[in-house]
Design a protein that fits this description.
Blueprint lengths: L1 E14 L2 E14 L3 E5 L6 H9 L6 E10 L2 E2 L5 H8 L4 E4 L13 H12 L4 H14 L16 H13 L5 E5 L7 H18 L2 E6 L2 H7 L2 E6 L2 E7 H6 L4 H8 L38 H5 L4 E5 L2 E4 L5
Parallel strand pairs: 3-8, 3-9, 6-7, 7-8
Antiparallel strand pairs: 1-2, 1-4, 4-5, 9-10, 10-12, 11-12
The structure holds adenosine-5'-triphosphate, iron/sulfur cluster (SF4) and magnesium ion.
Adenosine-5'-triphosphate binds next to β1, β2 and α1.
Amino acid sequence: MVLLKVTDLRLYYRTTRGIVRAVDGVSFDVREGEALALVGESGCGKTSIGISIMRLLPRNVHTYDGSIVFEGIELMKLSDEELNRKIRWRKISMVFQGAMNALNPVLQVGYQVAEPLIVHEGMNKKEALKKAMDTLERVGLPREVAFRYPHELSGGMKQRVVIAMALIMNPKLVILDEPTSALDVVTQANIMNLLKRLKRQHNLSYIFITHDLALASELADRIAVMYAGKLVEIGTAEQIYLSPKHPYTQKLIGAVPTLRETKKLEFIPGEVPSLINPPPGCRFHPRCPYANDRCKREEPPMVEVEPEHYVRCWLYV
Ligand SMILES: Nc1ncnc2c1ncn2[C@@H]1O[C@H](COP(=O)(O)OP(=O)(O)OP(=O)(O)O)[C@@H](O)[C@H]1O
Ligand code: SF4
Ligand SMILES: [Mg+2]
């Protein structure tokens, strides 16, 4: 069953240099109990999609439109107050990029985890703290961690704390923005295992944002590949990882190191284009080895290449 359906989402920012089209007509859905990974290079608009769904936007927004339907409710039509009361944190929550480094240094973490219960639910402190300790346990931390300060925790423990913060109100969908990128590989693997277990135990859905395709394929049921503000390919993890169709996805896979093979890492030449003046036609054309004249002029549509597998490239039209 579809839990979240995003259609033609756009988020543009106003800057002194011009309008940044960070999310430019993006459509996808997330099903119940499913992890959808959102993958792409730095600056392609992944975080912007996350904050659009949460409607936690910066002040310099120029355009914010499209449709975001969650459990049959059009979120775009809700007031901020309604969104807060019904959806935000309760149904959809987010672990922000770098959140573990943004914990309040002078407040014991138990109170930081409990805060939404006190603020939004009006729960008393003692009760909220008990629930926070239960949630800390759910993410594999001892209850007494509630009384520690952030500097008394390792990176992996801090990351578990911010995951607990996102889970405290029992949401159905959690947006995880690069939840392991600041951690060493062993800690990263532990957090990935935790995320898998939580998903299984609570039938959670995830939008898992990462620049790392290998990591995405480990957790995700489906993978959406983003390039310069647009989705260019979406399919099951297996389809994307084993038979990528878009030249950009193929390059991304080529750039993944493997333990078994000693192949030379593929380098993706060129840079992510400016989102102020994106290239016309297919946005990938300046870096694409297959680009032809049509690619430079006309934007390719998203086409289905096999069940569940869609790609935006003239080679498949
Ligand atoms: N508040 C803002 N004002 C202006 N431009 C912004 C703002 N936030 C993000 N951008 C720009 O929008 C584009 C998309 O940014 P976003 O943070 O969504 O990318 P990302 O894919 O999450 O990148 P990363 O992998 O580095 O986290 C980038 O060009 C970024 O510089
Ligand atoms: S549409 Fe053209 S430029 Fe874009 S990825 Fe396909 S072949 Fe390359
Ligand atoms: Mg980001």
